Amino acid sequence: MALFKSGNPVINEKIFRNLEATGDEVMTIGGTMKKFGLMLLMLIGGAAFTWDLYYSGVNVMPWAMGAAIGGFVVALIITFKKTWAPQLALGYALLEGLFLGAISAVLNAAFAEKYPGLIMQAVLLTFGVAVSMFALYYFRVLQATQTFKKVVIAATMGIALFYLASMVMNLFGSQMPYLHSNGPIGIGISLFVVAIAALNLIMDFDMIEQGAAGGAPKYFEWYSAFGLMVTIVWLYLEILRLLSKLASRK
C-alpha cells in the first residue's frame, strides 16, 4: 500500500500491510492528535523535572544519559512491536522529556550571557515550524507526492548515515568535518538538517490522514502519535544545535 508512506523511520508503508481493524475501533485523526497532546504534556512534565533539578544544583547528565538510552530502547520496542504503543508511548514521551530538559538546562546555562533566551527561542521556533508545516500541508501548498517522498526519504537516510559515521569516528577519537563547526559550512549543514526534519512533518501528517482514511486499527493512534513525537523531538534538537552554533559565534 504505497498510500501509507512517511520519511519518519518509525512510520512507513510496511506498517500498514496486512492490518485489519475490527468493528468500529478504527484510527481517527482526532484520536491521534488527542494522544499526541497527552504525549506532549508528558514530555513537558519530564523536561520541567530535570530542568528544575539542574537549577537546584543536581548533576543532570546521568539523568540525560539514562533517559536517552531508555528512550532509544523504548522507541525500538514500539517500532518492532507496534501493538505495544498504547502501553509504551507515554513512557517514551516522559523519557524524552527528561532528556530534553536536562540538555536544555545545561545549554541554557552555558549560553546565558552570550545568548539569553536560547531555549525559549528553540521551543518557539519548533512550535512555529510545526504549525507552519501543518498549515502548508492543510492548504495543500506542500503535498506528499511520490517524488516529494523519495527526495525526503533519501535525504533523511543520508543524514542518518552521516550521524552514524560521526558516532563511529568519535569512538576512535576523531570528528566528522564541519558537523559541529560554527562556521558557514557547519551552520549550513544544520539549516539543511532542520529543513529535512521539518519536511518529515509533511510526511507524517499525510500518513496520519491516509491511515485514518484507510481504517487503520485503533492502536495506531498511539503509534502514529509516537511517530510524530519522534519527528518533533528531532526537529527541536536540530534547532537547538543550530542556535547553539550561532550563539558560539558571538
Task: Give a structural overview.
This protein is mainly α and 250 residues long. It has one domain (25-248). It has helices at 29-54, 61-80, 85-110, 118-138, 146-171, 184-213, 220-248. It is globular and about 55 Å long. Residues 1-7 have low confidence and may be disordered.
Shape: globular
What summary fits the major beta sheet? none
Identify low-pLDDT runs: 1-7
H/I helix tally = 7
Average pLDDT: 89
Number of domains: 1
Overall helicity? over 70%
Strand content: under 5%
Intertermini distance: 50 Å
What key phrases describe this protein's structure?
71% helix; 250 residues; disordered N terminus
Quick structural overview:
The chain has 250 residues and is mostly helical.
Helices and strands in order, then pairings?
Blueprint: H1 29-54, H2 61-80, H3 85-110, H4 118-138, H5 146-171, H6 184-213, H7 220-248
Helix pairs in contact: 1-3, 1-7, 2-3, 3-7, 4-6, 4-7, 5-6, 6-7
